[in-house]
Specification:
Elements lengths: L1 H27 L5 H5 L6 H10 L6 H13 L5 E2 L4 E2 H36 L4 H15 L2 H15 L15 H35 L2 H8 L4 H31 L1 H7 L4 H10 L3 H29 L1 H4 L1
Antiparallel strand pairs: 1-2
């Protein structure tokens, strides 16, 4: 186990260094001078000069990267020039919102995707199989923003059951919080459910044709026991890795959905930062989400290592 972790960490650290260089380098390609943008409409030369010095914009590019990297290694991701707050504080404010949205979305995806994949595999080449595949194809093909708008029109405008947008903290009102999060969570979970369904179906078909499943059936075990106890437990091994990766994708890829439903999470934070040329926020949030995605990938590998005895052998 320790050697496995050491090998994975040996690849993660250079990857994070490369990601930090990529994030910082691509940020410099954005048009416009950050100091001029932040100086406001008057663009006082003294203010511009002060901002350039404060942001190290008068230094060469490699030195600016080293200044930024040094702060990152000390836990300092910079300060938002627009909101006058440290980026770490902004992340701490927005992270719980995105984690809640991602958690509900992955729960929706697991609730729909895994049972649909099991049914599709057990009843292969039947109407249930075709229906599950059709639903999966629909989930993969439907744009999130379009589905979100349709849900708002149906459940908010027409029926009036759910709020169209906004966010309420669960500490203030749990019921209002769930009412505000269920539609965006379903929009995000819909596409992931389709992916989970296809992978579960493929894994189940492979396991159901294996020798030990045929042996279990030959012993006279009930089909439900064969499917749920012997087949599903082994088929879900690759789904664990996929679920962790999809959760990481939700943390960084819910931009459009958060914009449609006005959810104040990471997606809205980074979009607002890009429009306001708040470069420190953009760099900090992208680096954090990339690190979180890599960390979740590592956790998925560890979980796969623990549940798969062949790797431990």
């Amino acid at each position: 186990m320790l050697s496995f972790l050491a090998r994975r960490l040996a690849t993660i650290l250079p990857t994070l260094l490369f990601v930090s260089m990529l994030i910082f380098g691509l940020q410099q390609l954005l048009p416009g001078d950050p100091a001029v943008v932040l100086a406001g409409e008057e663009r006082d030369p003294n203010v511009v000069a002060y901002l350039r010095q404060k942001l190290h914009l008068d230094e060469p590019l490699p030195m600016r990267y080293l200044y930024w990297l040094g702060g990152v290694l000390q836990g300092d991701l910079g300060e938002s020039m627009r909101m006058q707050k440290p980026v770490t504080e902004l992340i701490a404010e927005k992270l719980p919102v995105t984690i809640e949205l991602a958690s509900i979305a992955i729960l929706v995806a697991l609730t729909i995707g895994i049972p649909a994949g099991i049914v599709s595999a057990v009843y292969k080449d039947t109407v249930w199989d075709y229906a599950a595949n059709a639903v999966a194809l629909w989930g993969l093909s439907t744009p999130n923003f379009w589905l979100g708008i349709l849900l708002i029109l149906l459940f908010s405008v027409t029926l009036g059951w759910l709020p169209a947008s906004g966010y309420v903290s669960p500490r203030e009102d749990l019921r209002a919080n769930l009412a505000a999060m269920i539609m965006p969570a379903f929009v995000l979970g819909n596409a992931i459910a389709a992916v989970l369904m296809r992978h579960t179906r493929s894994a189940m078909l492979q396991v159901l044709s294996s020798d030990y499943v045929r042996t279990a059936r030959a012993k006279g075990l009930h089909e439900r026991v064969v499917v749920m106890k012997h087949a599903l437990r082994n088929a879900l091994v690759p789904v664990i890795t996929l679920g962790a990766l999809e959760f990481g994708t939700l943390l960084s890829g819910a931009v459009l959905t958060e914009q449609v439903f006005t959810i104040p999470g990471f997606g809205k934070l980074i979009v607002d930062a890009v429009f306001n040329r708040d470069y420190a926020v953009v760099q900090g949030v992208v680096l954090f989400t990339a690190t979180a995605y890599i960390a979740l990938n590592l956790l998925a590998d560890v979980a796969y290592f623990l549940v798969n005895p062949r790797l431990r052998g």
